[in-house]
């Protein structure tokens, strides 16, 4: 009765029911209560599971401690898992350093309950590591469950069932469980193709290769849907941004840096199957999803007015670019282009590493700045660079735009290198060339929009004159936060300086993904990518040296040169430079034009309504949703959850 | 390559770079002369930009009270990027540029992006309304111009089977083909990008001194003296850069290295003449219509790309 498979099925069905219940409970305005009860019950189930079942088997497969006390530690020799565990640890350390500095400033009225959530951080991190360390589907799904549950508990714990942040937990819960059930369905389909296979990844891969074409397509689509849900890709991106905005910085760091990259880990884990059985259609699908997500989330980043929302959307944009590069990689693999396949994969890995480092730095810098200004709204910021809080944020913001000499540029350069190799190759077909061209133009357009977003978030919040008077409510951040920020910043600088080393460090990871020889991969990477990476890091070193010289000179001079007011063209110096006058002009300035001028057909409509708010006003929809203002994606998601729950139960029975 | 060539080509390249750095300020001088001639008046001297730079360099810089160090370092960063950008251009098909490697245009594009970023940030740093508006408009239009630039480069890459600017010039020479429709479409698109990037009419009135000149003059409002000279000089180098890019597309008419070198050195002046004529007969377009012009260029670039792909897959030469 209580075999791991059955327990997994029961927990999946319960979580499905909890998600659907939470969905309706939100309509009844009892969402937080229902979520809290459901999650508490499920946590009790996980705790009691070893007692009621076969303890040995369950500890090995189901519970979180088993991952560390009874699991096979051979994953340490799996370079792909090790790579992702490194990313999780990096973000977890930054999140912990950020959590140490929790104060009522960003906890609102619920600060008294804030320490409760500390209990749930360690299991969440352990579950993330467990996700990477998993060598079988059961462990992966259970770790995913635990991560989702801990995440919900972290979100619910301090809100004391208030109504304001009620949407966050149920959105997070329903999306995570949707992703889990997608992965679960994919694994079950693989297992059904080969009844003798157990749930280890190796056997599932073998089962996938032996499955029918229809089954393979279904498995791939389920993986992609799961990645879209868990990675918060469009149209499911609101979950991440709402979570980033309303929760503490530690949660934002953990979810935005590590949580949403886990689906990409799973995709790469199954890449050998996709690469050895490459399908051009799969690649095109990934490119389309990635491009739409990257471009429109870049536009959303530009349109947002709060820093943390902008950071959340930029994470989704980054994920979109990664997915797009993975799609191009599949397309290249489908025509047997090994070199460009490897270049794309290297670009994605470098982009993932960059994303973790940059977002950790940005969130900590944002926390530091918000401590000073006591606000995260762009309209209330300004002038914070003078407080010495802007440099880390500025470097991170520039990195988001993939401009040289930042390491993100090196990653994007590898993707471009691959795309242009495809374009100029005489053997590439017209379809592959179009895919590469779409990738180039789409990635370029999304980063062009991100340039505007970077200027907006950094320029509005840190430059110019303060829009509000900080002096009355100035809060000095603790020294530990400064220390964290410095460590993260210097870590980023070191990483940027040694970016060319990825040509020697990534081949084992890429060998796990592609099943090619690591030496061969290293030779190709050294030949193709080493020089551009070296040039980028050399420029970064030059820039760092120049900044050091600038600081040295500034310190040597003792004080900055005396400034003079600029005689303005109408001669009104005093009026021109008064804070109130500047603010009035600055915010009356048509920065909104950046978005309003975008003449992409449908872009303005998308920006105002969003993909997720398409309202179909048919009678059936009205009947299903009543008068509640809900979006279609959750209706679709609800149906999918029901189907996948049925699938899980069907497997169970 | 003979021993003489081995020595001569680097020497020629150095001479070319020096020539570019020295003669680039002539471009706005030529444009102003043509405009004055068309208006029937006596315009400023061709050397007027040099005189302006001389005067500005000998003045003392004034800095806005509300500005941070970003305002101060921006002229240096912009000038550095502009000078580095020039080093990506091959003066002749036989003479590769100093920075010639696979996907070097991505790096060039990145440097232009850094210039755009720094100027936009510096504009916001000052806190003025005109600067903010200039920053906003520059970024709004760059959303279209940047992918457009890449589409043009893609077309040339597909046509020449190379992914480096220097190799493109060489491949065009090796093919020895006359200008084809694809080339012409790419050149038209690049010329429209040039007008946008160098802030000339109809996108902007770089010579204007009033509020109507919203982009270039908006960026320069907070700068004076040497900083202003650096910003102006960087803008001129950028214009030379795009003119040279167009020149690269047209260099396939001769196999002679010296002739192509002279052609590449003089071609930007021809472009300046054309710009002067355009500025004489047209006015600045309203902001809301500017994206349409860029979309026309995008249409040219996309058609060029389709032609390039078609000819690449054996669909005949377009």
What does this structure look like?
The complex is a heterodimer of chains A (653) and B (318). Chain A has 30 helices and no strands. Chain A is mostly helical and 653 residues long. Chain B is globular and about 60 Å long. Classes of the chains: A mainly alpha (653), B mainly alpha (318). Chains A and B meet through α20, α21, α24, α26 and α27 of A and α4, α5, α6 and α12 of B.
Largest interface: A-B, 72 and 62 residues
Tell me the structural class of chain B. Answer: mainly alpha
Low-confidence stretches of chain B: none
Shape of chain A: globular
Overall geometry of chain B comes to globular
Radius of gyration of chain A, in Å, reads: 25 Å
The rounded distance between the terminal residues' Cα atoms of chain A is 11 Å
Distance between the termini of chain B: 33 Å
Overall SS class of chain A:
mainly alpha
Spell the H/E element sequence of chain B: HHHHHHHHHHHH
Summarize the structure.
The complex is a heterodimer of chains A (653) and B (318). Chain A is built from 30 helices and no strands. Chain A is mainly alpha-helical.
Descriptive key words:
heterodimer; A: 653 residues; mainly alpha; 30 helices; 74% helix; 0% strand; B: 318 residues; globular
Topology:
The complex is a heterodimer of chains A (653) and B (318).
Chain A: H1 4-27, H2 31-52, H3 55-61, H4 66-69, H5 79-100, H6 114-118, H7 121-133, H8 137-156, H9 167-193, H10 201-210, H11 213-230, H12 238-246, H13 249-258, H14 262-269, H15 271-276, H16 280-303, H17 307-334, H18 338-373, H19 391-400, H20 407-424, H21 430-462, H22 479-497, H23 502-514, H24 518-557, H25 573-577, H26 579-588, H27 593-596, H28 603-609, H29 619-625, H30 632-652
Helix pairs in contact in A: 1-2, 1-8, 1-9, 1-30, 2-3, 2-8, 5-7, 5-13, 5-18, 5-22, 5-23, 7-8, 8-9, 9-10, 9-11, 9-12, 9-30, 11-14, 12-13, 12-17, 13-18, 16-17, 16-21, 17-18, 17-21, 18-19, 18-20, 18-22, 18-23, 18-24, 19-21, 20-21, 20-24, 23-24
Chain B: H1 3-23, H2 26-38, H3 48-57, H4 69-86, H5 104-126, H6 129-160, H7 165-175, H8 181-197, H9 216-220, H10 225-249, H11 257-281, H12 290-312
Helix pairs in contact in B: 2-11, 3-10, 4-5, 4-10, 5-6, 6-8, 6-12, 8-10, 8-12, 10-11
